[in-house]
Design a protein that fits this description.
two-stranded antiparallel sheet, 2 helices, 170 residues, alpha+beta, Immunoglobulin-like, elongated
């Protein structure tokens, strides 16, 4: 979740070595440093150990490379998502030819669901219009019918959704 937020909310981001391995036992309350940090020792990382998120990070990097909407820092717009534990936003190029929509479950322990809005108005479409979307994490295309939809995001299965909205003229 944090990696997705960093990769899709900022035009520049980086990862501390070991982040993709989900290593990060804190030193203690109120401390930002981690136990076993390579700051104080030489680390030999096992990038294939279970529990890593390296495939997700690889997909995030591909999504960032392939979508110019994620290259600017001034184009983040937040969407209505009627659950405080789900953050919904989109980023679009000025030409409106690339639009990435992101929904993130902020609760790392429980499934959350909500109704949310698709920014049809950004394409000059009415609230009842249909827009095509591409799932950038899972693959495949689908149609979103109307402005309001419902989604469930589960931290154990799918904590985030990243979609490219396909403008009607493309």
């Amino acid at each position: 979740m944090r990696g997705t937020l960093a990769a899709t909310l900022s035009s520049v981001y980086g990862l501390y070595n070991g982040f993709e391995l989900c290593e990060g036992r804190p030193m203690g309350p109120g401390k930002e440093e981690y136990i076993d940090s390579e700051k104080y020792e030489i680390k030999a990382w096992d990038y294939d150990r279970p529990g890593n998120i390296k495939d997700h990070i690889r997909k995030l990097n591909r999504i960032r490379r392939d979508n110019p909407a994620l290259w600017d820092f001034r184009n983040v717009s937040f969407l209505n998502a009627w659950n405080d534990q789900i953050l919904a936003y989109f980023r679009m190029t000025p030409a409106r030819d690339n639009c990435v929509m992101v929904l993130v479950n902020l609760d790392p322990h429980r499934r959350q669901e909500c109704s949310y809005e698709v920014p049809l108005w950004e394409f000059g479409l009415p609230d009842h219009a249909i827009i095509e979307a591409e799932d950038l994490l899972g693959g495949g295309r689908f149609a979103l019918h109307g402005k309001t939809h419902r989604i469930a995001l589960d931290p154990a299965d799918r904590p985030v959704a990243i979609w490219r909205l396909i403008p009607p003229s493309v």
